[in-house]
Amino acid sequence: MAILELKNIVKQFADYTAVNGVSLSIEQGEFFTLLGPSGCGKTTLLRMVAGFESPDSGQILLDGKDIKDLPPEQRPLHTVFQSYALFPHLTVRDNIAFPLKMAKWSKADIAERLKEQLSSVQLEQFAERYPHELSGGQRQRVAIARSLVDRPKLLLLDEPLSALDARLREHMHVELVRMQEQSGVTFVYVTHDQSEALALSSRIAVMNHGIVEQLGTPREIYSQPKTYYVADFIGKCNLLPAVVIESNPSSYKIKVAECIELVLPNEEIEVTLGQSGWFALRPEKIKAHWDPRHEDGVSCVKARVKGYYYYGDGTLYEFILPNGVVLQCMLSNNRPNQASFFQENDEVFISINPLAGNFLVK
Ligand SMILES: Nc1ncnc2c1ncn2[C@@H]1O[C@H](COP(=O)(O)OP(=O)(O)O)[C@@H](O)[C@H]1O
Ligand SMILES: [Mg+2]
Question: Is domain 236-361 annotated with CATH 3.30.450.20?
Answer without folding.
Answer: no
